[in-house]
Amino acid sequence: MKKILLSCLLALFSVSAEAQGNPAMLDPKQVKQIGVFDDWTAYIYETKKDKVCYVAAMPFKSSGEYTRRGDVFLMVSHRPKEDMFDVLTVVAGYMYMPRSEAVFRVGKAKVSLFTHEDTAWAKNLRTDREIAEEMNKSVRATLRGTSIENVETYDTFSLKGFNNAMDAINRLCRQSGKKASDAK
HSE on the CB side for 151, CA within 13 Å? Predict the structure, then answer.
């Protein structure tokens, strides 16, 4: 399980040049589980120079005509030292088709995510914030992507426990009084 968490963490951070030069910064022993909240788990990664909190969930339903696929994760993170909050990251469990977009739907939002290798992100922090707000109000989210083998996949994520998991990371990684709607 720690290997999976480390791979999620690597995707989540989009490993900075400083971290690439110092593998100790990515020590899985530094990833601590804050708690499990129904279908979501909250984590904190902290070093002397950095602190990141994130929540993660796996889909409860996946479909597509693939023969093999790795683990799939939906994550939302806070990076207070970079003033980045509610950052959406998806790890697909396969390599995306180059120059393709993944489509993420939650509540009233339908968002095209940009992809790179096995990961997808929203195009800007405003979109991240809007997605997080819709996730707070919804019961499920879906993701459609296309693999490098041109196989379309569909993943459905439960949002049960998302609010409580976000509350847990908000307590540890937000400045007091700062709400998701206040983030840039």
Answer: 15
